[in-house]
Amino acid sequence: QGALAFRDVHFSYDPERPILKGISFEVPAGKTVAIVGPSGAGKSTISRLLYRFYDVQAGAITIDGQDIRGVTQKSLRAVIGMVPQDTVLFNDTIAYNIRYGRPGATEDEVTAAAEVAQIGTFIESLPHGYDTMVGERGLKLSGGEKQRVAIARTILKAPPILILDEATSALDTTTEHEIQAALDVVSKNRTTLVIAHRLSTVINADEIIVLRDGGIAERGTHADLLAQD
Ligand code: ADP
Ligand code: ADP
C-alpha cells in the first residue's frame, strides 16, 4: 500500500524554462527513494506536485496506480505526511503539537511517539520559551528539537507515504545523526521519498536519483553511485 510513481512528468513554472523534462521513477510500497541534486534542480517542486500545489503539465503521478489528479488535496494530505525542514509549531505544549498529527490519539500514544523522537522529557513544555498569557515558561527549542516534534507528529499520524525534506538542513553533525536515527525509525517499511542535497545523508535509500538539468542524471544505490564517480 502506498506505491508511488512518476511517469514521464513534465513541469515548468514558466513555459520558457522547463523544470522537470520528463522524469520517471517509482517508490515501491514500503521502500525509500532519495532525490538529490543541486539547489534549483527541482527537488522541492517534486513535493509540491505530490500535494497538488501544482499539477503536472504532461505525464502523471500515481499512488497505487491512481492518477493523483483524481484525488483532492485534502485526501492527499491524509495519505502523504511530510517532515519539513523548518517546522512551525503552535504556541502550546509539545504534547499538543504532537497530537496535531492525529487528534484522536491517546496520551500514551503521544508519549510513545515523543519517546521514539527523543523528546519525551519535555513534552509538557512550550516550544517557544514564552507564553503570552503567563510570560516566560518552558523551553526555546532548537531547530533540531523542532524537527523532532515534527517527527513525533508524523510517527503518530503514520501516513502510508512520507516525504522527508532534508534539502536545506543546517543542523550540526551530532544533531544530524540523532535526527537521522529517528527518521530511520519513521521511514522503516513506509513508502518514503527523501529530498536531500548530499549523498552522505541518504546512504540507506533503496534507490538514489540524481536530478540535474530537468532530468535524471544518475540513479542507483549509494554504492553504485560512488562506484561511478
Ligand atoms: P530545489 O528544491 O531543487 O532547490 P526547486 O524545486 O525549489 O529546486 O526549484 C526549481 C526551480 O524552479 C528553481 O530554478 C526555482 O527558482 C524555480 N521556482 C521554484 N518555485 C517557483 C515559482 N513559484 N515560480 C517560478 N519559479 C519557481
Ligand atoms: P497536515 O497533516 O497538517 O496536513 P502534512 O504532513 O500534510 O500536514 O504537511 C505538513 C505541512 O507541510 C503542511 O502544513 C503542508 O501544507 C506543508 N507542506 C507540504 N508540502 C509542502 C511543500 N512542498 N512546500 C511547503 N510546504 C509544504
Automatic annotation (TrEMBL):
Domain ABC transporter: 4-229
Localization (cell): Cell membrane
Highest taxon above the source species: Bacteria
Similarity-based family: Belongs to the ABC transporter superfamily.
Protein name: ABC transporter ATP-binding protein/permease
Portion of the parent chain present: 361 to 589 of 629
